[in-house]
Specification:
The complex is a heterodimer of chains A (754) and B (133). Chain A contains 21 helices and 23 strands. Chain A is α+β, with helices and mostly antiparallel strands. The termini of chain A are far apart. Chain A has a 6-stranded antiparallel beta sheet. Chain A has a 6-stranded antiparallel beta sheet with strand order 12-11-16-15-14-13. With 133 residues, chain B is of the alpha/beta class. Chain B has a single domain, classed as Rossmann fold, CATH 3.40.50. Helices cover 41% and strands 20% of the residues of chain B. Classes of the chains: A alpha+beta (754), B alpha/beta (133). Chains A and B meet through helix 16 of A and helix 1 of B.
């Protein structure tokens, strides 16, 4: 590029001859003419450009497509023609590259748009010549360099310039070619031409910059228009929503596909692996690798896990080279998580059959639709929950046995369930709207004196019972829980009553009550009996005590009679007196034993007793009897028990004495005493080898004053075993006999460890 | 105490017993004076009425079960007598054996000398004479 100092016009000197001056003038004239021509050309170009721009701006209003495709090519053609004129060459070429877009646009003077391949070939030759140092300089390219590009640029020499606008990212390459057998030979020293070419080129670049700015503005306006149209489409979708969330989701998915011009749009709840990955659950993804059901998984299954760890739920995912999926033509897969409470729950996906770059707006639209789907999903969950609750409530209300009804304060029924209808014997349609009071015929009402109060209810609910005569003629007891239902003003608007058939319970209660009454009577009888028994014992005591007094008087006066009148009485009279005395003695014994029996246990005292020691003491007490009868007493292991010691001593004494007393003549008496623990008690036995007892007497021997033998043979009062029985009873036990006449008797008794 | 046995009082509602016991006492010592009382009230009234007469009882045989004032009540009343009067007599309960058992439930009386079972015998009298006179 020339600077001001080197400007050829300013350097011209007026010196020398006229010829020289003339020559200079002519030269100057020629140059002025040429500059004028150039100026004219530029004006023409600018006019043409203005015209084209105006035209294409107009075109834009009618035909957006033309605007998008045409201007660069048209403009390049115009510039190419201008180059041919300015440089006086046979062929002109313009190659323009918008550095932020792909590809070059080339255009020859003939108007043919150079295809990308041709551009490439030219640049391969020229770009090495146009590095950063030569940028903006005029290039003169000789014949040798053209060999490679002859087919593209049919010339032998070329004259060119390379300009770059870094700010607006435009690279411009303008060439003028001279054919080998050129009509005109271009002058390499023609500096004016260089200047003109330079200025021209700068202007062309400026034009491109302007055009690009215009185009950007137009594009932005266009994009805004498009976006607003898309948004209004989404809004339309929202407005045309139906009641079914799934249908609405389908609608949203479909419109997402349409708006982003995808080849397929999908909504799925099964892109599990990806959703899990977003929740940072890597193991799920690994587990999932054998399962190829999910579309996105199919695509990223062969990617290393590390690449996916950065996934975040609110991002839009784009996979190019989406070869693996079910869509054979797919090139790009775009997915977006649907979030509920910031957690991914489902997946919105688009498939494109070509490589696609999504703009920010597209992503925004996808997110808006995803958010719309989330709302529908939420609604779907709510609806499902509502439906489940309703089902649950229905099943509870309909399947339970309780009668349920609702009624207004004037008792008009608003709801009845199946058991209620069944009990009342009417259909639901016949019950609703009727007044509860009117439904119960007077004849059936018994005890329904607590019918719902109009609108007063304490504690919001109450329980009442009533008895109804059912249509079948049976009585039914019912228990009702009545609850008030309030409105926002805290007024009772309705009542709900839940009732159950408690007839069986009532019957059971009645039976229980009558049983309880019986029990009370029995208890009273028992108490009476116990008291009677005590009275009887007291009576026995008093009777025997009082009997003693007159008996003693008789005894005393017999003595006086004998003392005072002995000499006056004959032998017979003495014999009578002896009989009277014997009877008195027997009477005394009877009274004494009866007294003992009645007083048995009155002073009882519980102590821990070693039964073996007790038995040893009893045997010692019976020593004289044992010695005289030569009896053998065998005692097995004995326990330590809590007993009434004195009474128990008497029991053993009676039994052992009995065993020896009722021995067989000429047989050594053997008495075996043993004890064993049974489930409920301690069981003792006292066995002898004596005369035995006949089975018919087994019970009688325990009765008071019952004797099986005449006085003289085996003497006794007949009270011993009665005492034994009473002592065993004191120890909450039983006593019984096993015996064979002539072989021996076993007395068994049980006692509790008290 | 004037350790001389001259007069015996029998307190028993049963006149047959009193008669018999009087005979036993007579058999023991014909010189002893015997006073029979069929109620404790009567006996107590006698003791209070004339403390200085000749025949004040030196020995009293007292039954327990007596209609009106019983033997125990008699003993309480006896305890309230003047010491001089109280010291003149030895009181012995003469009861049936069962009454003795019951008496074990009563609180002990300071001026009760002894328990004896009916009927009274010469042996009992000899023992008491040896013990208290």
């Amino acid at each position: 590029m020339s600077n001001q100092e080197e400007n050829p016009i300013r350097q011209t000197q007026f010196s020398g001859s006229f010829e020289e001056l003339l020559k200079s003038y002519q030269e100057l004239q020629l140059r002025v003419t040429r500059f004028s021509a150039v100026e004219q050309q530029m004006i023409n170009i600018r006019n043409k450009l203005d015209y084209e721009i105006t035209r294409h701006k107009r075109m834009h209003a009618f035909n957006k497509k033309a605007l998008e495709d045409m201007p660069d090519a048209v403009f390049c053609k115009l510039v190419s023609e201008a180059v041919v004129d300015i440089l006086e060459v046979q062929v002109g070429v313009v190659i323009v590259q918008h550095l932020d877009e792909i590809g070059w646009l080339g255009c020859g003077a003939e108007g043919a748009v150079l295809h990308a391949g041709a551009c490439q070939v030219l640049l391969q030759v020229f770009l090495p010549l146009c590095d950063s140092n030569t940028q903006g300089n005029i290039l003169n390219i000789g014949e040798s360099d053209f060999l490679a590009i002859e087919s593209v640029l049919p010339a032998k020499h070329a004259y060119g310039i390379h300009l770059v606008d870094e700010v607006n990212k435009i690279s411009l390459f303008i060439l003028g070619g001279i054919l080998a057998d050129g009509v005109k030979l271009y002058d390499p020293l023609d500096k004016d031409r260089d200047v003109i070419f330079s200025v021209f080129s700068q202007q062309v670049l400026a034009q491109f910059v302007n055009r690009k700015k215009n185009k950007t503005i137009v594009n932005q306006v266009d994009k805004i228009e498009t976006l607003s149209k898309r948004l209004s489409k989404i809004t339309d979708n929202f407005l045309s929503f139906g009641s079914s969330p799934m249908e609405n989701i389908d609608l949203l998915t479909k419109s997402c596909g349409e708006l982003l011009k995808a080849d397929a749009a999908m909504y799925t709840r099964s892109e599990k692996c990806l959703i899990k990955l977003m929740e940072n659950n890597e193991s799920d993804l690994l587990n999932h690798q054998n399962d190829s059901c999910d579309l996105c998984f199919q695509m990223f299954a062969d990617k290393p896990l590390g690449q996916m760890k950065h996934l975040s739920a609110d991002e839009i995912f784009i996979w190019h080279n989406a070869r693996k999926c079910d869509f054979p033509d797919a090139k790009t897969y775009v997915g977006c998580a649907v979030l509920l409470e910031n957690k991914p729950v489902s997946w919105l996906a688009l498939v494109f059959n070509q490589e696609v770059i999504l703009e920010e707006n597209d992503k925004q639209i996808m997110k808006i639709i995803s958010a719309g789907i989330a709302v529908e999903e939420l609604r779907s969950i709510s609806i499902e929950n509502l439906r489940k609750n309703e089902q649950l409530l229905n099943s509870v209300v309909e399947t339970q046995q309780e009668m349920i009804c609702r009624y207004l304060p004037d008792t008009t029924l608003t709801f009845v369930n199946a058991p209620y209808c069944k009990v009342i014997g009417l259909l639901e349609k016949d019950l609703l709207g009727k007044r509860l009071l009117d439904l119960i015929p007077n004849a059936f009402v018994n005890g329904v004196h607590t019918l719902p109060a109009s609108n007063k209810l304490d504690n919001h609910s109450r329980i009442f019972f009533h008895k109804l005569l059912m249509p079948g003629g049976n009585w039914m007891w019912q228990e009702w829980v009545e609850t008030a239902i309030y409105n926002h003003q805290n007024q009772i608007i309705e009542f709900q009553a839940i009732g159950r058939d408690i007839t069986e319970r009532k019957i059971a209660e009645e039976i229980l009550k009558s049983k309880m009454d019986e029990l009370v009577v029995i208890n009273k009888k028992l108490e009476q009996l116990a008291s009677d028994n005590q009275e009887l014992e007291q009576y026995a005591y008093l009777a025997s005590h009082d009997l003693k007094e007159p008996l003693r008087t008789v005894e005393n006066f017999i003595q006086l009679l004998t003392e005072d009148y002995s000499s006056q009485l004959d032998a017979q009279a003495h014999k009578y007196l002896d009989t009277i005395v014997a009877a008195i003695n027997r009477m005394n014994i009877l009274i004494k034993t009866l007294l003992e029996f009645s007083r048995l246990g009155v002073n009882k005292k519980l102590t821990k007793v070693d039964c073996r020691v007790l038995l040893d003491e009893v045997i010692a007490d019976l020593n004289s009897v044992i010695t005289s009868s030569d009896a053998v007493i065998q005692i097995s292991d004995m326990p330590h028990l809590n007993l009434y010691e004195a009474e128990m001593r008497q029991l053993f004494q009676n039994l052992i004495a009995n065993a020896i007393k009722f021995r067989k003549k000429d047989v050594q008496p053997v008495v075996k005493i043993s004890c064993e623990k049974t489930k409920e008690a301690w069981q003792f036995s006292v066995r002898d080898n004596g005369i035995g007892i006949a089975p018919e007497h087994f019970k009688r021997v325990f009765e008071i004053f019952q004797r099986l033998h005449a006085g003289k043979e085996y003497e006794g009062s007949g009270i011993g075993l009665a005492n034994c029985k009473k002592i065993v009873k004191l120890h909450l036990g039983e006593i019984w006999i096993e015996s064979t006449v002539g072989e021996g008797t076993s007395f068994y008794f049980t006692i509790q460890n008290l | 105490m004037e350790a001389k046995l001259r007069c015996v009082m029998l307190v028993d509602d049963n006149p047959d017993d009193n008669y018999f016991h009087q005979r036993v006492i007579g058999k023991y010592d014909r010189s002893l004076k015997v006073i029979s009382m069929e109620s404790a009230n009567e006996a107590m009234a006698f003791l209070k009425s004339n403390p200085h007469r000749e025949n004040h009882p030196d020995l009293i045989f007292l039954d327990v079960n007596i209609p009106g004032m019983n033997g125990w009540e008699f003993l309480d009343a006896f305890n309230n007598l003047d010491a001089e009067l109280r010291n003149k007599s030895v009181v012995v309960l003469l009861t049936t054996s069962d009454d003795q058992q019951i008496s074990s439930r009563e609180k002990p009386r300071k001026f009760l000398a002894d328990f004896q079972s009916k009927p009274l015998t010469v042996n009992i009298l000899q023992d008491l004479k040896a013990k208290y006179f």
